[in-house]
């Protein structure tokens, strides 16, 4: 797609840009999956090397009606993914127009270029939505607060996943590891220069399916929800303290404990378990599934001197690709 260079037809106040650009990145949940929906805390890690860029501009095509748009994804996305993303984009743009008082205008074209694999628990949908929101704000010359951007991304996330906690919508724009709880965030103190290795199992998970499965299980077993959320909260707070105090063995142990919690709830898979076991065998301090479950990725904590061995073992155990996220390279400032 060739983006247009003219915003002819828009009122002067809307003609701040001919092309708007927005960017976001992937994230991984360290601890707190699922429990965060019930008000528990979650720890999230930005993955800046997995980025998504959105470009929004005006087309020379004749619009069929106010607010008409065309949407293109780079790469070779499936037809189902394009359809789902397009439906969410229409909802997102409609909400942006409503909030910002934007009406009419020529045909809008959006191009999305993403390096984040879909369905892996890395925040692909939230990052795409954030990049598009920022591209629209840039195109229309609007200044969005972080809260306004978050609320717009949540509109799309709730459509894609059902009841979204909001952690993804915050984390895909974060510059540092963060604590998320009930819509509020704070930057995490980091007392150690280790690293995380994220491994893609090659199998897509389904957050919506996992959330529904867990909720049904809670309904069948009285007290199960309280036990799950209580244990998740305990592990997450302990992990936060270990990260701040520079206790990597403690942090790693809590990661593995959280994987055991997810596995007991039926949210892991044989492939994921094999990856976790391989990472631990190779010297990782801890490893767990990350994201909603039923597929997706594993995240492992390692000392820098063990990173090569852990990464190699993850590939031997079936990982299709891996990424290394050093804590030292992240900007540890308040968001």
Automatic annotation (TrEMBL):
<feature type="domain" description="GHMP kinase C-terminal">
    <location>
        <begin position="240"/>
        <end position="318"/>
    </location>
</feature>
<keyword id="KW-0443">Lipid metabolism</keyword>
<keyword id="KW-0808">Transferase</keyword>
<dbReference type="InterPro" id="IPR013750">
    <property type="entry name" value="GHMP_kinase_C_dom"/>
</dbReference>
<comment type="pathway">
    <text>Isoprenoid biosynthesis; isopentenyl diphosphate biosynthesis via mevalonate pathway; isopentenyl diphosphate from (R)-mevalonate: step 1/3.</text>
</comment>
<dbReference type="GO" id="GO:0004496">
    <property type="term" value="F:mevalonate kinase activity"/>
</dbReference>
<comment type="similarity">
    <text>Belongs to the GHMP kinase family. Mevalonate kinase subfamily.</text>
</comment>
<dbReference type="Pfam" id="PF00288">
    <property type="entry name" value="GHMP_kinases_N"/>
</dbReference>
<keyword id="KW-0444">Lipid biosynthesis</keyword>
<dbReference type="Pfam" id="PF08544">
    <property type="entry name" value="GHMP_kinases_C"/>
</dbReference>
<keyword id="KW-0067">ATP-binding</keyword>
<dbReference type="InterPro" id="IPR020568">
    <property type="entry name" value="Ribosomal_Su5_D2-typ_SF"/>
</dbReference>
<dbReference type="InterPro" id="IPR006204">
    <property type="entry name" value="GHMP_kinase_N_dom"/>
</dbReference>
<protein>
    <recommendedName>
        <fullName>mevalonate kinase</fullName>
        <ecNumber>2.7.1.36</ecNumber>
    </recommendedName>
</protein>
<keyword id="KW-0460">Magnesium</keyword>
<dbReference type="InterPro" id="IPR006203">
    <property type="entry name" value="GHMP_knse_ATP-bd_CS"/>
</dbReference>
<dbReference type="InterPro" id="IPR006205">
    <property type="entry name" value="Mev_gal_kin"/>
</dbReference>
<feature type="domain" description="GHMP kinase N-terminal">
    <location>
        <begin position="93"/>
        <end position="169"/>
    </location>
</feature>
<dbReference type="InterPro" id="IPR036554">
    <property type="entry name" value="GHMP_kinase_C_sf"/>
</dbReference>
<keyword id="KW-0963">Cytoplasm</keyword>
<dbReference type="InterPro" id="IPR014721">
    <property type="entry name" value="Ribsml_uS5_D2-typ_fold_subgr"/>
</dbReference>
<keyword id="KW-0418">Kinase</keyword>
<keyword id="KW-0547">Nucleotide-binding</keyword>
């Amino acid at each position: 797609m060739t983006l247009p260079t003219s915003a002819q037809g828009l009122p002067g106040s809307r003609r701040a840009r001919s092309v708007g650009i927005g960017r976001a990145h992937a994230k991984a949940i360290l601890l707190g999956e699922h429990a965060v929906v019930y008000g528990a805390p979650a720890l999230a890690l930005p993955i800046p090397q997995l980025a998504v860029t959105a470009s929004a501009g005006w087309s020379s095509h004749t619009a069929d009606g106010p607010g008409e748009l065309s949407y293109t994804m780079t790469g070779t996305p499936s037809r189902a993914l394009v359809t789902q993303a397009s439906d969410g984009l229409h909802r997102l743009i409609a909400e942006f127009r409503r909030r910002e008082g934007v009406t009419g205008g020529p045909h809008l074209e959006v191009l999305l270029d993403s390096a984040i694999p879909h369905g892996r628990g890395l925040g692909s949908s939230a990052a795409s939505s954030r990049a598009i929101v920022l591209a629209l704000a840039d195109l229309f010359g609007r200044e969005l607060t972080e809260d306004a951007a978050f609320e717009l991304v949540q509109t799309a996330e709730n459509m894609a996943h059902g009841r979204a906690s909001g952690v993804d919508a915050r984390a895909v724009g974060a510059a540092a590891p963060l604590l998320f709880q009930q819509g509020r965030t704070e930057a995490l103190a980091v007392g150690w220069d280790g690293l995380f290795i994220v491994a893609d199992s090659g199998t897509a998970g389904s957050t919506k399916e996992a959330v529904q499965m867990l909720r049904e299980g809670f309904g069948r077993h009285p007290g199960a929800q309280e036990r799950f959320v209580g244990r998740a909260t305990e592990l997450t707070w302990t992990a936060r303290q270990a990260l701040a105090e520079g206790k990597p063995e403690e942090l790693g142990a809590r990661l593995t404990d959280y994987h055991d919690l997810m596995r007991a709830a039926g949210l892991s898979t044989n492939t994921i378990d094999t990856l976790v076991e391989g990472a631990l065998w190779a010297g990782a301090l801890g490893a767990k599934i990350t994201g909603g479950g039923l597929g997706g990725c594993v995240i492992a904590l390692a000392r820098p001197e063990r990173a090569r061995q852990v990464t190699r073992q993850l590939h031997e155990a079936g990982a299709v690709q891996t990424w290394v996220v050093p804590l030292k390279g992240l900007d540890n400032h308040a968001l």
